[in-house]
Amino acid sequence: MEVLYETLLAITWPQVAMWAIGGLLIYLAIAKEMEPTLLLPMGFGAILVNLPLSGAASVIEHLFDIGIAGHELFPLILFIGIGAMIDFEPLLTNPKLMFFGAAAQFGIFFTLCAASFFGFELNDAASIAIIGAADGPTSIFVAQELNSNYLAPIMVAAYSYMALVPIVQPPIIKLCTTKAERKIRMVYKGKAVSKRTKILFPIIITAIVGLVAPDAVALIGFLMFGNLIRECGVLNSLSETAQKVLANLITIFLGITIASQMKADEFLKVDTFIILGLGLVAFVVDTFGGVMLAKIMNLFLKEKINPMIGAAGISAFPMSARVVHKLGLEEDNQNFLLMHSIGVNVSGQVASVIAGGLILAFFRGIGG
Amino acid sequence: MKMPITEALTIAVIGICVVMMILAIIAVLIILLSKVIRAIEKLIAKKTPAPAAPQPVPAAVVTDREVELIGTDEKTAAVIMAIVSKKSDIPLEKLSFKSIRLMDNDEKGGNK
User: How far is the C-alpha of A18 from the C-alpha of B84, rounded, in Å?
Assistant: First the structure.
């Protein structure tokens, strides 16, 4: 009875607020099915670490030390699974889609300026900016490498907004495009990509990125390693394991580990809300950048591009591609944009890793 | 250490340009890679006899003399031989082709 009394007395208002936040994340995961694989463990973890005198906090912190603080193992291993899931064929059949992946990284660089404007330290501003990569593992990797003081809000923002892509992107896309533009049909010229090309692609990309942005080579290397396992054709069982078992296992640990950074006293700060706001801005600018590039390209192209596919350049894979496809069908039920938007989406995946590597290279050199 | 907004802007512009440039390089490399691999595969296919390749061409060999191909390639000739064999119900081994010639436009207009 005395223990119960002592525990009840230890409850603070900020902890109660964190339970509410945890509850909200669980609600979004279950009721709205928003990125449930991550939001549910994060939500539950947020409640777990904010229980008064929580004995779980130290265990989760240990997981954090092993899986994230120590060489960012979890995000990197997760990248093997993601690489094994990605089919680069739509991109290989139309390499021009690469540019949309780049344009949809505008958010990163815009947010960098915005974070600097709000007075964040150099390493923190760069880490916050990378939320715009719309890529959880890259955000964790960069923020951790740059020793950011805001790892938790960055991770929460990155994953939450990825989950919120179906809510965040459509209004922005509609705002930037006309009905006629959204109705533009695109013919998919599905050319057969040889097995050799598919095998050489991950190796060559790793080599190029390794040469240009050595800081990103761990990220791109693990991503492409997963893809090589998928495409080589002789490791089907490993590919299956990477796509399902490995990715699921790491996701479980990653979600709950992120929660170790969601302790009320560290999380509930004004800066956290600014970071959440900046994260949203990053996603909005990413979407805007991708759509605008397509519109600019349309000024010069004979065969017009549906500008909505530019929005799929954020690397939230495959959600943003699906969002674009769905929006296309809303306007014209015979307009199938999925293959184009998936191509843009996977190029966004590569682009976000390169952008992450560049941010690391810039800020390690300048002041990190 | 805080960063002046002008420096942030400079880094932002340089950053997006570099990302664009790297992705442009990758796009060009993908196009080149696809072309090179396609060319290599064509070469390999030419060197190694395809198992499923149509056999009518050797059929001409059965006649003990070469078929003279005028203005047409071996592939087309093989197809023509196969069609003739099929339509005439004569096995290719028993057919003898002296030459296969591409007709010019005047000859084609013969039914005027």
Answer: 83
